[in-house]
C-alpha cells in the first residue's frame, strides 16, 4: 500500500511527539527533586547546573550569590595562575639565556 508524502510527514510528527513525551517522563523519573538549601524552594531540573555553587550545594536564583560560601576562591585562583604563569616563566628564562 502506497502512502502519500503528507501521510509520512504526519506520522513522523506524531512519532516525534510521542518520543518527546516519553523522554520528558523518563527525565522526570530519573532526576531527583532538588530544593534550595536556604529557602527550600524547588529548583527546576534544567536549571540545576546553573544553580549549583562550587561549595557543593544548590540554591535558587536569589540565594546563589547571597549565601555564605565555604569555597575558597583565592587559593583556587592562585593555583590556576601558577599553572598559567609557569610556562611563561620558563620561556622568559630561555629568552634571557639567548
Report on this model:
With 98 residues, the chain is mainly α. The protein has a domain of 43 residues. It has 3 helices and 2 strands, in the order αββαα. A two-stranded antiparallel ribbon has the order 1-2. A hairpin with a 6-residue loop joins strand 1 and strand 2.
Q: Give the neighbour order of strands across the main sheet.
A: 1-2
Helix content: 55-70%
* Broad structural category: mainly alpha
Counting H and I runs of at least 4 residues, what is the number of helices? Answer: 3
Overall 3D form: flat
Give the uncertain stretches in residue-range form: none
For the sheet with most strands, the description reads: 2 strands, antiparallel
Q: What is the residue-averaged pLDDT?
A: 78
For the record, give the distance between the C-alpha atoms at the N and C termini, rounded to a whole number: 81 Å
> How would you name the oligomeric state of the polypeptide chains in this document?
single chain
Work out the strand percent. Answer: under 5%
Layout of secondary structure:
Layout: H1 5-30, E1 34-35, E2 42-43, H2 48-51, H3 73-97
Antiparallel strand pairs: 1-2
Keywords:
98 residues, mainly alpha, 2 strands
Give a brief rundown of this model.
By secondary structure, the chain is mainly alpha-helical.
Amino acid at each position: 500500500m502506497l502512502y502519500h508524502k503528507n501521510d509520512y510527514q504526519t506520522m513522523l510528527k506524531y512519532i516525534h511527539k510521542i518520543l518527546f513525551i516519553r523522554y520528558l517522563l523518563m527525565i522526570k523519573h530519573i532526576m531527583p527533586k532538588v530544593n534550595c538549601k536556604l529557602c527550600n524552594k524547588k529548583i527546576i531540573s534544567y536549571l540545576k547546573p546553573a544553580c549549583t555553587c562550587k561549595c557543593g550545594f544548590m540554591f535558587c536564583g536569589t540565594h546563589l550569590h547571597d549565601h555564605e560560601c565555604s569555597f575558597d576562591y583565592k587559593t583556587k585562583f592562585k593555583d590556576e595562575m601558577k599553572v598559567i604563569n609557569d610556562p611563561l616563566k620558563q620561556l622568559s628564562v630561555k629568552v634571557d639565556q639567548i
